[in-house]
Amino acid sequence: MIERRQRRDRGGRSYLVYRVRVGDVDRTLPRGTTRKQAEQWETKVKQLAQTGQLEQLDAGGDTLAEFVADWWTNYATTHLAHSTLETYKIMWERHLAGRIGDHRLRELRPPVIATLIADLERDGVGRPTIRKSLGLLQGILARGVEWGRMTDNPVKNVRKPTIVRDHVVRVLTPREVEALRAEMDLRDQTIISCLAYSGPRPGELVRAPLSWEDVLERTLLYHQPKTQRPPRTVRMIAALAGDLAAWRLA
Questions:
Q1: Closest to 157 (Cα-Cα) out of 110, 117, 119
Q2: What is the model's pLDDT at position 19?
Q3: Which CATH number is 64-157's, of 1.10.1740.10, 3.40.50.720, 1.10.150.130, 1.20.1250.20?
Q4: Which of 26, 19, 16, 116 is nearest to 64 (CA)?
Q5: Mean pLDDT across the chain, nearest whole number?
């Protein structure tokens, strides 16, 4: 049997949920579940009851907050850089924990994620921040699937907010780069040359500066301390090779 019930969230806004009862199973489905999805879930319960597999309904019984604690201890602290952990901690506490932390893993379906996005937008959270928060959540739930705590990742199937740039990125021409370098000392000229002609990410040049061991005959090796992945290989053009040679002889 399926019942429709009305509830209110922390802000006083009303919403509908569905309660499904099949034999000894009595469960209220998560916010955002449609009537059709409630009917599909009811059918699934009946099928599991007929085959004696009702224990599968208890999979994903942990709340998201409980799972995040496991993820933090068993994955994040050993795979992510300290700066990334600090960023993720703030993002989780500020945008996710209070909104969906109490949801059980089995309740996290695409409609729940869509409601989360709508709540974030309604509360004035910017779209870039929403996308980053969803990226964090998707990464966390990927481990849930990998560890057998979930059957799929609901964030993957939800459309993320699009970001419209309010400015145009203008790429400097080689002539403009050289004019900029002409106003600097040799050290800064070399840094600008690396930035302009090999395209490192800011963290690659700031957190893990190049050493001469990273300057090969035709390529540069940029280390990635944030992800702890192997160095990234970048082709070295002749102009950059000449600038690095001048700096080495200085």
A1: 110
A2: 86
A3: 1.10.150.130
A4: 116
A5: 87
